[in-house]
Structure formats: structure tokens, C-alpha cells
Design a protein that fits this description.
The chain contains 14 helices and 10 strands. Helix 6 runs antiparallel to helix 7, helix 9 packs across helix 10 and helix 11 packs antiparallel against helix 12. The protein has a 6-stranded mixed sheet, sandwiched between helices. It has a two-stranded antiparallel sheet with strand order 3-4. A two-stranded parallel ribbon has the order 7-8. By secondary structure, it is α/β, with parallel strands linked by helices. 44% of the residues lie in helices and 11% in strands. The termini are far apart.
Length: 358
């Protein structure tokens, strides 16, 4: 007579069938989150191709995918290598882009992430220059960190202001004396060519692309999804002597937050310094150490940022926009916006609305 096998139950344990069910539920939730964070490209989406060179840095290689790919399908982000083969990174891993160089001819934007560059290195691999030659005229080119070395080697930065990582600035100047290198900024935008500094500035320049293409609302949404600051001006210093405020709450961060709530009114240096419980001289020095900017320059940037948001998202008259963000007159707003964006407020609004409609 068969003997039934004994079974033992553990108090509180789930049935065996519950584990696969729970795993499926978690997998479905993960897939749904992935669809929300990085939906499929929309029809006619802007095609951005990331060109991975030998010795590419994995972190920066992923930035365009993470940032542009979080813009609700507005971008189709692809990766390519110069010969369709796997690419060795600067770490102990190899990546295999899904495309070869031929996809560069279809790109609307090409991003060159950083790759290993030593002081002893000569010009980039001829294959990389040949791949870059496939890019159509008028395609927007973007470099992150040492990616600027490839753009410069191709002659695309001659006579232009550009940036790269500050630590390689001397080497860059030696190799490319025709380029006006500014190693003190996060990124430089010429419209058709953008260069950015190291690591996190790749996030800044990609958010800048989203803001230029689709406005501040979309860029802010992308920044929230990526859990990064929504805006750092390209002219901000790369290397800040004191990147963190001093211990004891004596930094200028709380005063910056306080000022952002009061942009509509006048904010004199004395008033800012008094809020921070510092002398004006100490406050100005601490402020520059922490932000890379003077208090006046920072305030102007914040007012322009808010003005652009209002021009994009409201029908307020230009005079009212100027008043809402703290510019004394509409003329002052026009002057500052022209210096930053090269257009008048009304033209900026028309351009943005036209791009939004398209």
C-alpha cells in the first residue's frame, strides 16, 4: 500500500504558487514603469544617434538615452559604433551598439560621448572621422567632455568657442590651436554645434536640448523623472573651489531659495546678505564659491528662466511678464533676452508656439 509522503508547513509561509504570481506582478509593474519613463518614440520623433568610440565612458554613454528618452517619445535615441562592432569601454566591460555608422546619415542630432584621451594620443581613429563624415549637413552635433576632441579633429570647431573637461584643456589647446577653448563653463551652444564639459554636464546639455526643442515645461518633467536639477546655465563654472556650503548652515543656499520666491521685487545685495546673516562682501564671495556666479548674474539668469517659462506657457503681455519676473521695464527684459537667446520676447514666443504646434 502506498504511503503518503509527509508534508510540513511553515506558519505564515505563502503557497508555492504565490511566488511565481508575485514575480509576475512585479515584472508587470516594472514593465509599466519602464513604459512610463521611456515610452516608444512617436511617429516622426527627432532621431538622436549616440556614437560610441573606442574607450567610451559608460556613464556618459547612457546620458542621452536616459534624458532624451524620458521626453515622452519625442526623441528616438539610437547607439552606433564606427564599424558596427562591439566597443571597448574605459571600464572592464564591452558594449555592443545596435547600429553601425550608416545610421548617422539618418540622424537629426549626433551625440559624441567622452572616450579615453591621453596626452600621448594623436588624432582620433580614422574610422571615427570617416563615420562622422556620414552625418548630413545641418545635423546638430553635441559633444560631452572629450567628445569635443573628435569634433575638433574634424575641423568642426575651428574659429569657434568650445569647451571640454577642464583637466584636459592644455592638451586640447596644444592639439587644436584654432579652437577658442573656454574650459570654465558647463557647455557652449552655437545652435548647430554644442560642446559640454565632463560627466554631469552631459545631463545639463541634454536637458538644454530638450528645453530648446520643446520648452521648459517638458524639460522640467524630464528633469523630475531623472531626479536631477532642471537647470544649470551653460556659463556656470565647471570647477568650483567650494562645491558644498560650509557646515553649520552658513551657505547661501537658503537665501537662494528665499530669493526665488521673491523674483518679482527688487533684491539688492545688501538685502540678500542680511537674509544670510553675512556682510555683503562675505556673501558675494561665498555665493560665487558655491555657484560660480555673482549674485547679480544669478538673479538675472533666474529672472530670464522664469520669463521664458511665462512666454512659453501664457499669453501675458511682455510688459506684464517683465513685471512678474522682476525686470524694471519691458525694455530691460528685451535687452537681456536678446543677449541670451538672440531674439525679442515676442519672437521667442512665436518661435516656441510654432515649434510646439509642429
Amino acid at each position: 500500500m502506498p504511503v503518503a509522503s509527509a508534508t510540513h508547513s511553515v506558519p505564515g509561509a505563502r503557497p508555492a504558487s504565490a511566488a511565481p504570481s508575485r514575480s509576475r506582478e512585479l515584472a508587470e509593474r516594472g514593465a509599466e514603469l519602464d513604459r512610463l519613463m521611456r515610452p516608444d518614440p512617436l511617429p516622426g520623433a527627432h532621431k538622436a544617434v549616440v556614437l560610441a568610440l573606442d574607450g567610451v565612458y559608460p556613464f556618459e554613454l547612457g546620458i542621452p538615452h536616459r534624458v532624451l528618452g524620458s521626453a515622452d517619445g519625442r526623441y528616438e535615441v539610437l547607439s552606433a559604433s564606427v564599424d558596427g562592432q562591439p566597443v571597448r569601454t574605459d571600464s572592464d566591460l564591452t558594449v555592443t551598439p545596435a547600429h553601425g555608422p550608416e545610421v548617422l546619415a539618418e540622424a537629426d542630432t549626433v551625440v559624441i560621448p567622452p572616450y579615453s584621451v591621453s596626452r600621448a594620443s594623436a588624432a582620433p581613429d580614422p574610422k571615427a572621422l570617416a563615420a562622422l563624415a556620414l552625418v548630413r549637413p545641418g545635423t546638430r552635433l553635441v559633444s560631452i567632455c572629450t567628445g569635443a576632441f573628435l569634433l575638433a579633429a574634424a575641423g568642426l570647431l575651428d574659429g569657434r568657442r568650445a569647451t571640454t573637461h577642464w583637466a584636459l584643456s592644455d592638451h586640447f589647446r596644444e592639439m587644436f590651436p584654432r579652437v577658442e577653448l573656454d574650459a570654465g563653463v558647463l557647455f557652449v551652444d552655437h545652435g548647430d554645434v554644442l560642446t559640454s564639459a565632463g560627466a554631469a554636464s552631459g545631463v545639463d546639455v541634454c536637458l538644454h536640448l530638450v528645453r530648446q526643442d520643446h520648452g521648459s515645461e517638458v524639460a522640467n518633467q524630464v528633469a523630475r523623472r531623472c531626479v536631477v536639477p532642471p537647470y544649470r546655465d551653460g556659463g556656470q563654472a565647471q570647477y568650483i573651489e567650494r562645491p558644498l556650503p560650509p557646515a553649520g548652515g552658513t551657505g547661501t543656499g537658503p537665501t537662494r531659495d528665499w530669493a526665488l520666491q521673491r523674483l518679482a521685487g527688487p533684491l539688492a545685495l545688501d538685502e540678500l546678505a542680511a537674509h544670510a546673516a553675512m556682510s555683503p562682501r562675505t556673501f558675494a564671495r561665498r555665493f560665487r564659491e558655491e555657484t560660480g556666479l555673482s549674485p547679480g548674474r544669478w538673479l538675472t539668469q533666474q529672472r530670464l528662466r522664469q520669463a521664458r517659462h511665462l512666454l512659453e506657457s501664457s499669453d501675458l503681455p511682455v510688459e506684464r511678464v517683465a513685471h512678474e519676473v522682476g525686470f524694471a521695464t519691458a525694455t530691460s527684459l528685451r535687452r537681456h533676452l536678446a543677449a541670451e537667446a538672440g531674439v525679442a520676447p515676442s519672437a521667442y514666443r512665436r518661435t516656441f508656439r510654432a515649434a510646439e504646434s509642429a
